[in-house]
Amino acid sequence: MAVPEQGGRMPYFYNTEGRLVQVDYALQAVGRGSTTIGLKTKQFALISSQVKPTRSLLEPAEKIFEIDEHVGATGSGYIGDVNTLIDELRLTAQRHRLVYDTPIDVVTLLRGLSQYLHSFTMYTVRPFGASIVIAGVDELGVQLVQIDPSGTNFKGSGFAIGQYADEALETIKNGYRPDMTVEQAIALTTEAVEGVNGGRSQIEHGVVRKDTKKFERLALAAAE
Amino acid sequence: MAVPEQGGRMPYFYNTEGRLVQVDYALQAVGRGSTTIGLKTKQFALISSQVKPTRSLLEPAEKIFEIDEHVGATGSGYIGDVNTLIDELRLTAQRHRLVYDTPIDVVTLLRGLSQYLHSFTMYTVRPFGASIVIAGVDELGVQLVQIDPSGTNFKGSGFAIGQYADEALETIKNGYRPDMTVEQAIALTTEAVEGVNGGRSQIEHGVVRKDTKKFERLALAAAE
Amino acid sequence: MAVPEQGGRMPYFYNTEGRLVQVDYALQAVGRGSTTIGLKTKQFALISSQVKPTRSLLEPAEKIFEIDEHVGATGSGYIGDVNTLIDELRLTAQRHRLVYDTPIDVVTLLRGLSQYLHSFTMYTVRPFGASIVIAGVDELGVQLVQIDPSGTNFKGSGFAIGQYADEALETIKNGYRPDMTVEQAIALTTEAVEGVNGGRSQIEHGVVRKDTKKFERLALAAAE
Amino acid sequence: MAVPEQGGRMPYFYNTEGRLVQVDYALQAVGRGSTTIGLKTKQFALISSQVKPTRSLLEPAEKIFEIDEHVGATGSGYIGDVNTLIDELRLTAQRHRLVYDTPIDVVTLLRGLSQYLHSFTMYTVRPFGASIVIAGVDELGVQLVQIDPSGTNFKGSGFAIGQYADEALETIKNGYRPDMTVEQAIALTTEAVEGVNGGRSQIEHGVVRKDTKKFERLALAAAE
Amino acid sequence: MAVPEQGGRMPYFYNTEGRLVQVDYALQAVGRGSTTIGLKTKQFALISSQVKPTRSLLEPAEKIFEIDEHVGATGSGYIGDVNTLIDELRLTAQRHRLVYDTPIDVVTLLRGLSQYLHSFTMYTVRPFGASIVIAGVDELGVQLVQIDPSGTNFKGSGFAIGQYADEALETIKNGYRPDMTVEQAIALTTEAVEGVNGGRSQIEHGVVRKDTKKFERLALAAAE
Amino acid sequence: MAVPEQGGRMPYFYNTEGRLVQVDYALQAVGRGSTTIGLKTKQFALISSQVKPTRSLLEPAEKIFEIDEHVGATGSGYIGDVNTLIDELRLTAQRHRLVYDTPIDVVTLLRGLSQYLHSFTMYTVRPFGASIVIAGVDELGVQLVQIDPSGTNFKGSGFAIGQYADEALETIKNGYRPDMTVEQAIALTTEAVEGVNGGRSQIEHGVVRKDTKKFERLALAAAE
Amino acid sequence: MAVPEQGGRMPYFYNTEGRLVQVDYALQAVGRGSTTIGLKTKQFALISSQVKPTRSLLEPAEKIFEIDEHVGATGSGYIGDVNTLIDELRLTAQRHRLVYDTPIDVVTLLRGLSQYLHSFTMYTVRPFGASIVIAGVDELGVQLVQIDPSGTNFKGSGFAIGQYADEALETIKNGYRPDMTVEQAIALTTEAVEGVNGGRSQIEHGVVRKDTKKFERLALAAAE
């Protein structure tokens, strides 16, 4: 099936191999973002994101966001895209409280974001250049999910996105233990981020715990 | 009829051979998805889908979805596309219950999805990069159908989509017996999936039975 | 009038010879469809369509559709397109009953479909890749019509569309007799289809009769 | 003024010579249509259109259309386009009766069609690939007009459109006499059509007369 | 500023020299139209337009149009475009009478047409391929104006548009005298048109007079 | 960052150097317009615009426009564009009187035009090919501003736009004296326009004075 | 992943490296803007912007804008874009006062502008070619933020945008002291701007103070 001539001139979404090229390119934008990690045990979920090396007189960018009392999120990729998706998550959570008068569960929150991201892959607009990691707690317990520019989502106990994500994930996989404490987890994600970025990094953390059912951003100092 | 010059510059849907090229490319996306099988006897319909080899700390993706009490579905292709189509099926089923106060029959469900998929082939948007297999039971008995990105649908007793679908289908055709039990069917679809993917795969199954008139997802362990 | 340069870059519908190229390409899609025949006498109209060679475990696709009690249709080309046009015909027929409380006549049904198809040739969408043959009976008697992707329609006593349509039509023309019985007609369309497709084909038939004023799909077995 | 580079990339309507290229191409589509003639005297107007050589088992296509009691029309070009324009004319005539309770006059009918055709030359849609000849009678007497894809219209006593239009028109001009009878006129248009199409053609005729103020389609046999 | 590469690919309106290329091409369409003249003295304004050499059995096209009792207009370029603009002028004049209960003045009429034409140069539609000359009388006296495809308008005592406009204008300029009679003016415009078109032409005239405050189309015979 | 391949095919607004190319081209259109000058002292503001060399029988185009009692404007570039912007200014001024019952101040008038022009640079339409100079008097005193196709505006005591603007501005800068009289200013702008256009030009002037708070167009004769 | 062929023809937002090319080009437009500085201590925030070297008879452009009593802003890039964003900020601030009856806080103001800018990167319009620096005081104290064309924003104590921004920022970083006075800060930003622009520049300043909670534009003379 070689139709290079006309094939190439219509407003193509798929390339000849059936790949959504703009989505692939958006993933490359994610791959340039700051190294970002998610880690979950039965007791808590931790999200950690490197704050890109900054300069003097510049406040470090916020990388860990509270979505609702019981949910936090972080992301990697184009900062404007990450922020827009975080806003979208917050809006979804608030609407849920307004309509149902209960905190949103993680799966519903996740599905909303997936649909939102997916719709930007169907039309002649651009897909978002950002992946998001959500940490939350609901009736099903502690939850950790990753959503990609195509709207694809994953559940698990350990994720890494952004620069050198693969190498960082290796560190997480090797050091992960189901009975870790939050402190041990922070030490591990710190090790993972610093390992791939060449030493001492500024890292922001957020944790949601099964017992408190609350998400809290940790002071940046915690990582130093 | 050789009009390469202008021919190539308009927003072409058809190529010079009368093929819908974006639909063909979308099918290639399906061909890269996880191997997915549908198998039907008079007593039951089974849908089985390989859970793509995952890594530690990652929960296997859900591949078998309940659409309604009496209908389940699976798919192969872009995950975001599969999920969107599953949502569309669920919505159709719910609307039907709401409006008619009866469970939706498989043909109506199928037609709705076909029209939805077809409409994305007519305009300057992209066709979905996913095929779906639906298993259900209604007044006409047990039903198994496959729907492709163009909205084309097929009825039958054995389907395979995704990677190495042709080879997997051979295994199904050879091992199929109209009086199989669910357990034998699971063994057969497992054999088909593992045969083409090089041994031991993680496979999710779902079954709908004539007697119970219910669809149920089977624990992943069933395949091990 | 040689304006190859700019000519080629605007969203062209016509090529330099005044041909609607996308419509021509759509006709090529029809030419790849299953061989499909329409045949009419004063007493009945028969539509016959080859069911494309299928594989085991796959139910043959439905090729003959009842539109209303007194009208049936078949088509050739992209299956998703055929199905959408069949739905459109059914909708038109139902609306007519609802509004006028009488069965729709074939000319009105035909005109509706022609306008629908034509409108898809005027804008930057794609024309349908399917031709349709309608067989019906109304106050004017038995009717047989063919509609092409451009919305052009023909009335007559013998049509063939799809693969090898020209050769199949030759067989029909040679064997046609105004006083044929339905059985003889079925034998003739079967001969026409099998002749071009290399022997024994699975063929679905539908017939509408002047006396009963009803359309009925014939069991596939009739052709064997 | 040589601006080949950018010139070519915007959605051009005009080419560098100031010609509307899509309209020119649409006229070429008309030039491939069946030879069609209009002829007028003070007493009547006749429209005659070759029914393209057909095959056995195919009913000749209708080429002469009644628009209203006192107006008929014919056309040449893409059949789907001709039919759509005929429908447009009928709708305009009916609306006029509904709103004003009088039969529409030919100039108003003509202007409506011209505006309709013209609007399809202004935007990024395609112009119609058909020319229309209208014959009618109103308070101003017998009228004969031709309308082209650009919406341009002409009044006169003799027109020819479609294949070999120029040659056919020569025959008309040579044989025309202001005091012809309808029969003589039919003989003349028949001669004109057959002369350019190589003998014995199937021709459909329609005539509107000053005395009856009615348009009537003539049986095809009249031309044989 | 040489940006040939990207420059060329966006939907350009301006070329690299800052010219509106589609407007320039539209002017070329005007330049192929029939030679058309406007001539004004304090007592009257005359508009004269060559009726393109026609053939037998074809009524000469109307080239001089009454817009309102006190205003007439003519045009050159694509006939469908000229007619649409004439309709626009008539509509504007009628609306003015309806709303203000007074005849429209020429400047208001002119401004409406200019805005209408201009708006078609701003978006991705095509500019009109026609220029218009308006002759009217209002409280400011006799008026003569020309409007081009870009919406640019001119006031004056002598205009020529269409084929060989420049040469025709020379004749007008040389022969013009402020105290001409209508008959002398008609002789002059006739000479101008015939001079550039090679002798004896069919010309239509229209005149608006200060004393009668009426516009009237002159019989074609007047020019012979 | 060399992405010539894809880079070039999307609907680019910026070129690779970050320049808005259509705006740059629009400025070139302005640079071909008639030489136009604005000059301001504390007592008055003068706008002067060359009336492009005209021919006999053509009235000079109006180049100086009253916007409201206390504001006048002129412009250079595409005449249709200038006129549309002048209409926009007049509408803004009238709306302001209607809503607030006070004459509009120059800054508000200017801001409205800037936003209007700017919006045409953001979407896939064309920017206006015209610059405007406004002279007005309000509570802040005499004001003179220039607005460019991008919506950028400048305040000052001396401006020149159109052909040979830079050279004309030199003349103004050299001859400017804060205590000039209107007559001296007219002499200076006349000198500036004629200096670059090769002698004796037809120039139109408009002046707004601090004492009268009125704008008035000066008779063309004043410049001779 | 080398898909140069089709890849290049769709309406690309991302290039093959996953970069938003139009946003990158917009940033180059910012890099040509006037050198603009923001500087913050606990007591005040200062924004300073070079007024591009102007000519005689031209008033220096306003570069420092009051958004609300307690907030000021400046920007660099296309002037029309800067002005539009300033208007957007003012509107947001006014709407906030109207709806909540309190002055807007800097974070809310910032988020509104970020979303506005971001939305122009998602569709087929152009991103703004301007970056903005906002200085304000609210309940969280003195605040200084920078927003880029992509909607990305930064908080900090020292920013530089526009021409030679990197070099200017070096000067700021070297000279910055947390206990500076406003006068010292002005001297520093002046030094930074003049250092990169080659001596004596016209610079506009604006300052917001913790004690007064007011923003004020400083007279230009302050910098001389």
Give the CA-CA distance, first to last residue of chain A. 57 Å
Kindly provide the radius of gyration of chain A, computed on alpha-carbon positions and rounded to a whole number of angstroms.
Answer: 18 Å
The computed structural class of chain A is alpha+beta
Number of helices of chain A: 6
Subunit arrangement of the protein? homoheptamer
- Tell the overall outline of chain A: globular
The two chains with the largest interface, and their residue counts, are: B-C, 41 and 41 residues
Keywords for this structure?
homoheptamer; 224 residues; alpha+beta; five-stranded antiparallel beta sheet; globular
Describe the structure.
The structure is a homoheptamer of 224-residue chains. Chain A has 6 helices and 10 strands; from the N terminus they run ααββββααββββααββ. By secondary structure, chain A is of the alpha+beta class. The longest helix of chain A is centred in the middle third of the chain and has 22 residues, at 79-100. Chain A is globular and about 45 Å long. Chains B and C meet through helix 1, helix 4 and helix 5 of B and helix 2 and helix 3 of C.
